[in-house]
Design brief:
Length: about 110
């Protein structure tokens, strides 16, 4: 499952369980590797996600440890976090831009 698809799944889950979540994310401090500044940490959803048994990696909230039964190297693990961070920021910025454009048209 690629990064974009996993982030999309995470966004769909958030849309359902935490409306307007993307307005609450600080893109300047967003860091998927840090529990306090990742998406889940900034939204204070750790208890909710664990309770619902949402797969963090499968929803783009965390890096995978294994791919095709092969453990990721330190480099691959770091790159996965970088790509996740980049995709989350891109998707959130698109939503922010769309919301701002809609306001300007109103």
């Amino acid at each position: 499952m690629n990064i974009a698809w996993r982030v999309y799944k995470g966004m769909c889950w958030l849309d359902k369980h935490s409306p307007n979540w993307w307005k609450k994310i600080n893109l300047q401090t967003l860091n998927i590797r840090n529990q306090e500044t990742c998406i889940v940490g900034q939204l204070r959803l750790f208890g909710t996600i664990r309770h619902l048994d949402v797969g963090l990696a499968g929803h783009g909230f965390d890096s995978r440890t294994y791919v095709n039964d092969k453990m990721l190297s330190d480099y691959e693990f770091g790159m996965e976090y970088w790509y996740l961070n980049t995709e989350w920021k891109r998707q959130i910025q698109l939503r922010l831009d769309d919301a701002n454009q809609t306001k300007e048209l109103a």
